[in-house]
């Protein structure tokens, strides 16, 4: 992966960046995403935010080698502290972190989102936490993608300003993804369901029934939701 050729995961994120956007890529690592978009002429300006010195220095080097000084600005900052009012950022991307961490970054940096109209988020795990944050904070899910790369499955979520009420099923599986149900979606949730069933069976052999009863009910609910979404009701957990 480099500035000319992104991984499939980052290419999916890039595809949701609107033309002439001013992009802040938080946790940008080598700044490949904003540099790639800048070289293609798809963004006006990019911010490459990094909280760690090593990745920040890598971003500086990438920008220099690509000849994009002044077009992509590496910044050493914690989360959305990389965004300044004078930047005019309208799009924020955060990729390659856990869902709860992404939600935490957004929550802690809420005042930096005033001029932002689109969030493109790629949680490695627990995308539900991102959807829950969006629903609670005035962001509507306008697009989703799920894909498999190098044996791992990734979800990409696009949030824009608006209000929506999602049920438990939509929060867990994604309102767009559960309608499409592509191959990656089915693989992910069949695997998750199998894992939940194994855990539930092991819990059933425990003598600490009172301590784990709530956890068991949560697992049963998740298994039933997965079964319903995947469309094979004969395997429904009782």
UniProtKB/TrEMBL annotation:
EC number annotated for this UniProt entry: 2.1.1.217
Keyword flag Lyase: no
Record GO terms (molecular function): tRNA (adenine(22)-N1)-methyltransferase activity
Domain of life the protein comes from: Bacteria
One BP term from GO: methylation
Gene3D superfamilies linked: 1.10.287.1890, Vaccinia Virus protein VP39 (3.40.50.150)
Enzyme type, top EC level: transferase
PANTHER family in UniProt: TRNA (ADENINE(22)-N(1))-METHYLTRANSFERASE
Protein name listed in UniProt: tRNA (Adenine22-N1)-methyltransferase
Keywords noted in UniProt: Methyltransferase, Transferase
Positions of transmembrane segments: none
Originating species: Bhargavaea ullalensis
């Amino acid at each position: 992966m480099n500035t000319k050729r992104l991984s499939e995961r980052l290419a999916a994120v890039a595809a949701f960046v609107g033309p002439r956007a001013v992009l802040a890529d938080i946790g940008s690592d080598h700044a490949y995403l904003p540099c790639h978009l800048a070289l293609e002429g798809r963004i006006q300006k990019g911010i490459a935010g990094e909280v760690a010195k090593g990745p920040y220095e890598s971003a500086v080097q990438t920008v220099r080698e690509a000849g994009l000084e002044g077009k992509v600005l590496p910044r050493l900052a914690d989360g959305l502290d990389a965004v300044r009012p004078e930047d005019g950022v309208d799009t924020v991307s955060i990729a390659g972190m856990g869902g709860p961490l992404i939600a935490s970054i957004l929550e802690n940096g809420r005042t930096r989102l005033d001029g932002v109209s689109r969030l493109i988020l790629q949680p490695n795990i627990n995308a539900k936490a991102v959807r829950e944050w969006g629903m609670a904070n005035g962001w509507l899910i306008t697009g989703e993608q799920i894909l498999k790369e190098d044996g791992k499955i990734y979800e990409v979520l696009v949030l824009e300003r608006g209000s929506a009420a999602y049920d438990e099923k939509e929060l867990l599986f994604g309102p767009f993804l559960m309608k499409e149900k592509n191959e990656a979606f089915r693989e992910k949730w069949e695997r998750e369901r199998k894992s939940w069933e194994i855990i539930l069976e092991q819990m059933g052999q425990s003598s600490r029934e009172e301590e784990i009863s709530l956890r068991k009910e949560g697992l049963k609910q998740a298994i039933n939701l997965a079964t319903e979404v995947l469309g094979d009701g004969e395997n429904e957990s009782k």
